[in-house]
Every structure is written in C-alpha cells, then in structure tokens.
C-alpha cells in the first residue's frame, strides 16, 4: 500500500530502494550519511524453531529525527524530500548494506513505513544473538524506487502490490518489477478507492464492476499472501484468481465467510477451506501456497489446513484477476492490502513471524539513540548535469526528478546549472568545487548556503537571491543587475575566502534586532538597502561604482530603530579625467566625505588621509606636515572661510597639515593631478612638466556612515565683496540628496556646483538637483541677514520636501553654450515675484570656464540665473559669451514652450547683423568664435529680446503676407531680395511644426507662393529659413479662416 505523492497536508509516499551488496569492515560507517540509530528485534518477538532467512521486516517509525521542518535549519537531520535520504545496514559483525523499500514517508511528521530485507532474523528457538540493524539518515543519496536493485528487494517475487495508486489512473505498479507497464490495471477505480489500510494504503473494492487485472502467471507453484477486510458475507467473493481453461487457482471468501483456495488441473479441482469465519470490518492476514504437492492455508499466521497428494498439481493459469473471477463475476466487496504472489513458499513459522511483525509493528523492535558521523556529509539531491545545464530537466538530477521546494540542493563539481521559470525555494544549497548556478528566476535558500573553492552563483537579470541562513563562501556570488537579499528570522553571517559582488544588496529581517555579520568582502555596485536588521560590517562592506562611475547608494528606513549599519564602510567615488583639449583631468574639484572617522563634542569629523591614499597631496613644508614632498610644496587641499576678503575664489584657505579634521557636511576644494598609483606618477604629475592629462581614478573613503539629521550654521560677513555669504558644504551621506529636500533658513534658492570638465561653477535653483555622495557645493546666505542655516535631513533628503513639491508657474528660458564636451547654461526666469538686476532673486556668475555664458543685468552684473518680473514690457538682455578656442559653437534654447504662444523671442547676432526668431520647444543657433576677432565673443555680440506685449504680435515690418486671413493659398512678399533656396516652416500656437516646404526662387522676385490647404483654421507662425545657413531670416503671423 505505497502512498502516492500528495500536495501539502497529504502524506508523501514513494517506493524507494537503497541497496548495496558489497560488505565493508566491521563497525564501519555507511559513507555519505550523517546520522544513524540502532534497531534491535528481540528474539521473544520471533517465535520460530529456526532462524528465518530472507525475512522482509516491516519498519513503522515516527521519529522527530526524520521530521523535516521548513526553516528549521539546525534541527533538521534529513533533506526534506518525499524520497527519504535513508539506508539500512546490519549491525551484527561485518556490516552489510541492506535492501530496503520505502512504502510511505511523510517528511512533515517523520512517519516512515519501510520494508527491509534481512539476510537472517534470529528466532527464539536458536542460539543466535538478537538481530540488530542500523537505520542511516541525512544524506545526498536517494535512489530510483524501480531500479534493478530496488525490485530485487522481494527476492524474485512475481508481484508485490502495496495498493498505492499510480497517479489518477486507479492502477497499481508492481513493486517487484522495473517495467512500468507491469502493473495491476484498475477497472472502474479512482483514487477515491484507495484509502488508509492495514499498512499504508489499501484498495477498497465495492463489488461489480470494480476489479483489477495483472500480469499472466502460468507457474505450477505459487505462494499468495495479503491482508483482507470484507464488508459483507452471504456470497462467494473472489480475492485473486488466474483461472484458465485447464488450470490456475482461485482464492475466495466463501458465502459463509470462510477462506477457500482452489486449484485446477484439467478437470480436477482441489481445495482447502479455513476453519476461521471472517467477521466484517476486521483485518485478516491470509496465506496460501502450493509447493512440492502440498497445498496449505493459514489465517493470521496459523495453519488451518494442508494436504499432500502425489497427484496434487496445477495446470498453468492465465491473467491474474483481482477482486473478481476471470469471468468478471463473484466480485469482492471490501479492502485488500499488501497482496503478494511468489513462486516459492515460506514455512509456517515464517508466515507466523510476518503476521506478528505486520500486525503490531511498533511492538516488534526497539530503537536506540542517535549516533553522529565523524565526517559531515552533504544532504539532498545532486545536480549532475547529465544531459545539459537545465535545472528543470529531471534527467539532470540524481533523483531523476526536479527537486521540490523543501529540502537541500547540491550542484556537483564542475557542473553548470541554470534555474529558470517560477520562483523556487530550498533549505540548504551546496555548490561543489567550480560549480556554477545561474539564478534566472527568484530563489530562496532558508538555511546554510555553501560555495566551495571556485564555485559561483550568478544572479542574472533583475532576479532575487534570498538567503535566510548562514553563507560559507569560498567562491563568488555575483550579479550585474540582480539583488542579493538577506532575510528570515535568524541572525546570519557570511564568511569564507570568497567574495560577493552584487548590483543590489538588501537586508529585510523579520525583526529589527537580528544581526548580520559580514565576515567576507561584499562589493555593492548600485544600492544597499536596509529595512529591518543590524549589519555589522567588520570592515568588509564596500559601496562601489557602477560601470558609468556612479557610487552605489545606501538606503535605510527613516530612523535607526528598525535598521542600523555598524562598523566601517568603504565608499568609492570616481574622479573623472581624460577630458578633451583644452580641458584636462588635472584640475580642481569640490569634494566632501560620505563617512566620518571621529566625533568631537558628538559632532562627526572626517580626515583627509583617504584622499592621500589615492592622490598626491602637497602642502607647506611637505612631509613635516604629513604632505607628499614636491619641488614647490604647493597646496592641494583648501577649505573655504567666508570671513575672509575678496571674491569667492579668494576665500579658499589651505589646510595646515594632514592631521587636520574637517566637520562632516563641509566641503573641500582639491587640486587633482590624477591617481598616484599609475606608473611613474610622481614624475609625470609633480616633477616634470608638461604634466599629463590624467584619466579618471577612484578615491575610497573608509569610515562610519552618518544617516541622521545634521545642522550647519552659515554666515554672511558683509564685507562688501563679491564673496560675501558663500559657504562651502558637502553631502555628508552615503547616498545622493536633493537640493529641494534640504531645510534652509536665510539662504538664497541656489546652489553652486563645480564642473571639472568646463572648469567652471554651475548654478541651479532646481529642487530636483542631485548632490552625489562625496560632492561639495556652495550656498549663499542672503545679504540682509548675518547668518542662516541648512539642515541635512537624513533619508528625508532623498525626496523633495512638500514645500517645494508644487512650484508656481514660471516662464523660464535656458540658453546653453556648447562646444564639443564643454557647456554652460544661463537661465532667465520670469515670475511675478522676480526683480530686475542682480539682487538675491538672481544668482551671480562666478568665474568663467572653457566656454562661458552669462546674462548682463541693467546694473552690468553678470548673472547665471536671472529672475525678472512679468512681461509687461519687452526685455532686452545682453548675453556675455566666451570660448577659449576658435571654432564652431552652438547656443541651445530650452523652455520656449513655457511662454505664451504669442510671445516673441528673438536672438540678435550683432556681429552677423541678423535677428533670429525662436518658437517651439528646442532651438539651436550655430555660430563661430574667432580668437583673432574680439567682436566674435564677449559682452556685445548677442542680444536676447523677449516681447510679450501686443506690439510683438504684429508682423515683421519687412515682410507682407496676403491675403491674411487666407483660405487655401497665400503669398509672402519681402522688401529685400530672397535667397535662391529656402526652407519654409509653419508652426501652430504651441510651437508644433505643422508644415514644411522647400522653395527654389528661380526668379528672385521677392514673392513666395504657399499652399495652406492642409492646415486647419487658426493662427500660425511662418518662418523663412536660408537653406545655406539654416538661419531664420523672416517671421510672420498668418491666420487661416
């Protein structure tokens, strides 16, 4: 009655056979198994005059050591699969592996029904010592229940039917045959007919037409045994028969309730009838046999009749019928269990002991204490990769099926496995030497994960590998995009000689006080997220760099109640370099530190030695002050002191020595010469000019992270200088922050960042502006106050504050000068609260750059952001434009769509003496700078004209459109001669391009004919563009009616 595999809450049953016939030395331990217990069968249970050979012992066991509890990593002794990882051996003298067949195993309860073949069972009437055997468990070795060794458990039996259905077919496989077709086929039977029986499952036959048929049996010898329980008497009922035309047998229940065995031989019939009368709903163990002209019958291990005759024989039978005669009549009503047909019979003493064993299994033996192997072995099925690398291919597994969720997984040495499909989970996970696991679907390992030398786990795509237990890693865990998640309800540690390099690392323990110890290197590429739990770094955590040089971000639940990061962290920052000429990687940077090393008066401070590990830092008196020696002892690192005199750049102050500490949240101004680690760096960067244009390199900060609020008090010394009010700060956190999320008081709405490519300060008022870890920036205290403040709000600094989430509607135009990789932006903002001139509503420009642009206020101040009032009157703004090289430049206009459609925006190029109107969303104007001609750059070449008044809606006085309004066709006439080749563009009120034409003016008569038939009724703007220069030279408004 083998129980079939069932889903959760049902018993998991299999036929499992584990056998080995090779002897090993006395008291040896069965290799591959971690635990064992001794089973002893007292001789008082074996009532026989002689020791019994080839006795198949039924072991019924419910033991917590065989129980598998998901997530209970330390207490589980077994792998947790429906096929238990067990085997048996003798315990008397020389230890032999024993054949065994599992009929039922439930890993959730630890209940086991198993048949063990004993070479000899010591009987009460002999001098032999009591029989002992070991049950071994906890291994990676499980076997095919229908292997050659498995079916020989029954020593050549014709059929062993445990009455366990095969799937939903209602049929039962023969436990003594490898051939899957050698089964008892059920007719009018379903899985509902298979119920709990005497030993595991039994088939409940309910009379006509339910029956079964088996293989053909033509032998002239037989031995049949089984358990029966009738539902009713009063009719003859066939239990099993192989009647043929001339021979065969029938085992029946007579109408009076007795057991009858009949044999047939060409018209002769011989029979025996039991003296026992069966009672309904009661189990009976029945045995009949024909051997050496002796016909015998027993009930419950007691012989009830036998006959011997020289002519007692049987002719060959046919197909075996179970539950009815071969003619499909005399149907059986009741249960059948453990039906066996053999060709060799056991003596009555043997049958008597079988009955005693099977009738009360738990009383038949005693169980010893657990013993543990001196050597630890892995448990669970092995991915052998026999066919390919597909996890989902059963042929790739040692158990010849894809492992279920509960249990342990082993990847064999040098094998590659790819896990795909739905999310899966396992208990323990072991990768042998040089094994590779590609995680292509989410995978959870609840218990120990072990990677041996050279092994790799690769998390592909955006998949998640969740680990709830300890990790012993002598290999590599890696991903470019996926996530490594530490979770579960236990403390964890990761250790070993290997390392971890993952895109995303998350901690989400079930409770906040659980500790994760990082005892090996973990390198994070994109993000570290702490939701619940405490991470102790032990100096093994690095927030590294992505392929594009962005530092990995650290996110933590607000506050330190739910999560905490304890210990030193390494945070990498990429210093860009290798810029194209005239730029150079050798130049200034605004930096800060995302970690701190000490706390003074409870305030965190950082030192500068981490910078010196990456670059040369020189200064006054060289090595005497901890600096690197240099020929000039020029200063490398400066702080900024607002209280000094002069412009912003005049208020930098060099550090005095390398032991100087900087308050966390302050910035420093650093001259970067490049990495000190490149070959001959000192000569190439400090000693022998011309110095190199260094490539980018990495600075690694090491220290503790600060994640809570940090308040900075800032000052304006009112010295009447351009540098008044500027204060140098730095992002104090290991994550990017938003300018609009910082809490400010008494400060202007701007921040100034340094662009090392253009060698210039850029200013922005965008609340979404991002300040990356390790980045310095300037803010300015308003001129009407002496001091202000800025509060870094920890993780609240990553999102825009509600006060800035809704911005008033603005008309904003950005004009960006571009040459190759160099660019700088000027921005004009029109708001009702704006003011003309360089007051606090506007941001003054600081310095120049390789390319430079600024707006010039009426007070002749150069501004980077120019806030003005509404367009009640036209605005004219001189643009100061500069470039270090001669050549082609561009002015790019962004934000045109923020203006009213009728607003006229025109760029006047005074050098080329032309006016260019703009509309739409983005426009670009190309121009040249000639360094030999000062008039091609400077403060007087470009004038930006913005006119929102009614006058701006009139047509260009040099152009006439008629008829206007028009119906289908209109004409354009100009006072000046038109170029021969022109592009014509027509835009709607939103600036969208709705019509374009190329026009060739062969007559050059100053008149253009345009078809507007495809246009809808409305107002449009006409642009005439010279094809040779791509410059708009005429502009007009037209109306279609």
Outline of this structure?
Helix content is 3%, strand content 44%.
SSE map:
Elements: E1 16-17, E2 35-41, E3 52-62, E4 86-90, E5 97-98, E6 100-106, E7 111-121, E8 131-137, H1 148-151, E9 159-161, E10 172-173, E11 183-187, E12 194-196, E13 201-206, E14 211-216, E15 222-230, E16 237-241, E17 247-253, E18 258-265, E19 268-277, E20 284-291, E21 294-299, E22 302-308, E23 319-322, E24 333-342, H2 348-359, E25 366-367, E26 371-372, E27 382-383, E28 409-411, E29 416-419, E30 424-426, E31 429-431, E32 436-439, E33 443-445, E34 449-451, E35 456-459, E36 464-467, E37 471-473, E38 476-479, E39 483-488, E40 492-495, E41 499-509, E42 515-518, E43 522-536, E44 541-543, E45 553-556, E46 563-566, E47 569-575, E48 587-591, E49 598-600, E50 603-606, H3 609-614, E51 637-640, E52 652-654, E53 662-663, E54 668-672, H4 681-687, E55 697-703, E56 709-715, E57 726-730, E58 737-738, E59 743-745, E60 751-755, E61 760-764, E62 770-771, E63 776-780, E64 787-793, E65 811-819, E66 822-830, E67 843-844, E68 851-856, E69 862-868, E70 875-883, E71 887-894, E72 904-909, E73 914-918, E74 922-929, E75 938-947, E76 959-962, ...
Parallel strand pairs: 27-28, 28-31, 29-32, 30-33, 31-34, 32-35, 33-36, 34-37, 35-38, 36-39, 37-40, 38-41, 39-41, 40-42, 41-43, 42-43, 43-44, 43-45, 43-46, 44-47, 66-69
Antiparallel strand pairs: 1-6, 2-8, 2-25, 2-26, 3-7, 4-5, 4-8, 6-7, 9-24, 10-11, 11-14, 12-13, 13-24, 14-23, 15-20, 15-24, 16-17, 16-23, 17-18, 18-19, 20-21, 21-22, 47-55, 48-54, 49-50, 50-53, 51-52, 51-54, 56-64, 57-63, 58-62, 59-64, 60-61, 65-66, 65-71, 67-69, 68-69, 68-70, 70-75, 71-74, ...
């Amino acid at each position: 009655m083998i129980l079939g595999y069932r889903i959760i809450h049902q018993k998991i049953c299999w036929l499992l056979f584990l056998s080995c016939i090779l002897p090993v030395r006395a008291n040896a331990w069965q290799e591959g198994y971690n635990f064992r217990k001794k089973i002893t069968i007292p001789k008082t249970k074996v009532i026989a005059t002689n020791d019994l050979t080839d006795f198949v012992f039924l072991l019924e066991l419910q033991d917590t050591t065989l129980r598998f509890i998901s997530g209970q990593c330390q207490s589980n002794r077994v792998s947790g699969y429906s096929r238990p990882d067990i085997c048996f051996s003798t315990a008397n003298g020389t230890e032999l592996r024993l054949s065994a067949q599992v009929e039922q195993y439930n890993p959730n309860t630890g209940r086991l029904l198993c048949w063990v073949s004993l070479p000899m069972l010591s009987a009460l009437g002999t001098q032999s010592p009591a029989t002992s055997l070991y049950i071994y468990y906890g291994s990676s070795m499980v076997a095919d229940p229908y292997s050659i060794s498995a079916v020989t458990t029954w020593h050549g039996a014709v059929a062993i039917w445990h009455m366990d259905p095969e799937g939903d077919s209602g049929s039962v496989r023969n436990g003594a045959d490898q051939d899957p077709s050698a089964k008892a086929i059920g007719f009018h039977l379903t899985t509902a007919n298979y119920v709990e029986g005497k030993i595991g499952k039994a088939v409940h036959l309910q009379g006509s037409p339910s029956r079964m048929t088996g293989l053909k049996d033509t032998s002239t010898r037989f031995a049949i045994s089984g358990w029966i329980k009738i539902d009713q008497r009063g009719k003859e009922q066939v239990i099993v028969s192989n009647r043929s035309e001339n021979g065969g047998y029938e085992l029946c229940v007579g109408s009076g309730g007795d057991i009858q065995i009949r044999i047939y031989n060409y018209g002769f019939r011989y029979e025996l009838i039991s003296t026992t009368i069966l009672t309904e709903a009661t189990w009976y163990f029945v045995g009949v046999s024909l051997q050496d002209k002796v016909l015998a019958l027993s009930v419950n291990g007691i012989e009830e009749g036998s006959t011997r005759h020289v002519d007692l024989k049987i002719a060959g039978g046919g197909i075996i019928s179970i539950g009815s005669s071969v003619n499909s009549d005399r149907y059986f009503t009741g249960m059948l269990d453990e039906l066996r047909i053999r060709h060799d019979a056991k003596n009555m003493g043997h049958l008597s002991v079988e009955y005693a064993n099977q009738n009360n299994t738990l009383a038949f033996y005693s169980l010893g204490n657990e013993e543990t192997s001196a050597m630890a072995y892995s448990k669970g099925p092995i991915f052998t990769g026999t066919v390919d690398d597909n996890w989902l291919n059963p042929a790739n597994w040692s158990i010849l099926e894809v492992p279920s969720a509960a249990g342990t997984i082993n990847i064999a040495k040098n094998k590659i496995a790819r896990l795909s499909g739905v999310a899966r989970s396992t208990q323990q996970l072991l990768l042998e030497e040089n094994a590779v696991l590609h995680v292509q679907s989410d995978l959870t390992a609840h218990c120990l994960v072990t990677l041996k030398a050279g092994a790799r786990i690769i998390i592909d795509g955006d998949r998640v590998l969740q680990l709830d237990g300890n990790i012993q890693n002598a290999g590599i865990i890696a991903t470019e995009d996926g996530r490594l998640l530490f979770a579960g309800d236990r403390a964890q540690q990761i250790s070993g000689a290997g390392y971890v390099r993952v895109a995303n690392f998350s901690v989400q323990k079930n409770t906040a006080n659980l500790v994760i110890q990082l005892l090996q290197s973990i390198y994070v590429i994109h993000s570290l997220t702490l939701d619940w739990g405490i991470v102790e770094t032990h100096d093994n955590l690095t927030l590294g760099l992505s392929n594009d040089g962005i530092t990995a971000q650290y996110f933590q639940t607000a506050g330190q109640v739910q999560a905490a990061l304890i210990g030193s962290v390494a945070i990498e920052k990429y210093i860009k370099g290798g810029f194209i000429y005239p730029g150079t990687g050798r130049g200034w940077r605004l930096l800060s530190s995302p970690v701190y090393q000490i706390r003074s008066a409870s305030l965190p401070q950082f030192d500068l030695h981490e910078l010196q590990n990456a670059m040369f830092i020189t200064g006054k008196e060289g090595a005497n002050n901890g600096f690197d020696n240099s020929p000039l002892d020029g200063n490398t690192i400066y702080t900024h002191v607002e209280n000094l005199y002069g412009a912003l750049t005049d208020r930098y102050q060099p550090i005095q020595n390398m032991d100087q500490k900087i308050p966390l949240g302050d910035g420093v101004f650093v001259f970067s010469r490049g990495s000190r680690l490149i070959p001959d760096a000192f000569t190439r960067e400090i000693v022998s000019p011309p110095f190199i244009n260094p490539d980018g390199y990495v600075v690694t900060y090491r220290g503790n992270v600060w994640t809570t609020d940090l308040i900075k008090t800032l000052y304006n010394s009112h010295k009447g200088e351009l540098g008044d009010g500027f204060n140098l700060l730095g992002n104090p956190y290991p994550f990017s922050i938003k300018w609009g999320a910082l809490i400010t008081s008494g400060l202007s709405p701007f921040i100034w960042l340094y662009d090392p490519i253009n060698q210039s300060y850029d200013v922005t008022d965008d609340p979404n502006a991002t300040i990356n870890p390790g980045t310095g920036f300037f803010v300015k205290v308003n001129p009407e106050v002496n001091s202000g403040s800025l509060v870094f709000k920890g993780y609240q600094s990553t999102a825009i504050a509600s006060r800035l989430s809704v911005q008033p509607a603005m008309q904003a135009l950005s004009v960006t000068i571009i040459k190759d990789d160099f660019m700088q932006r000027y921005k004009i903002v029109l708001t009702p609260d704006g003011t003309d001139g360089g007051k606090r509503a506007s941001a003054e420009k600081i310095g120049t750059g390789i390319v430079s642009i600024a707006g010039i206020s009426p007070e002749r101040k150069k501004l980077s952001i120019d806030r003005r009032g509404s367009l009640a009157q036209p605005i004219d703004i001189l643009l100061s434009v500069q470039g270090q090289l001669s050549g082609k430049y561009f002015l790019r206009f962004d934000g045109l769509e923020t203006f009213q459609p009728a607003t006229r925006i025109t760029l006047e190029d005074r050098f080329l003496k032309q006016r260019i109107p703009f509309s739409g969303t983005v426009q670009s104007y190309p121009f040249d700078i000639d360094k030999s001609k000062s008039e091609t750059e400077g403060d007087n070449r470009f004038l930006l004209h913005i006119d929102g008044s009614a006058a701006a809606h009139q047509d260009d006085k040099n152009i006439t459109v008629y008829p206007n309004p028009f119906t289908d066709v209109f004409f354009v006439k100009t006072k000046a001669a038109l170029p021969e080749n022109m592009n014509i563009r027509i835009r709607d009120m939103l600036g969208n391009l709705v019509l374009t034409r190329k026009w060739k003016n062969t007559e050059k008569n100053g008149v253009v004919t345009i078809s507007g038939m495809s246009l809808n009724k409305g107002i449009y703007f006409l642009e005439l563009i010279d094809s040779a220069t791509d410059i708009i030279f005429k502009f007009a408004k037209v109306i279609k009616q």
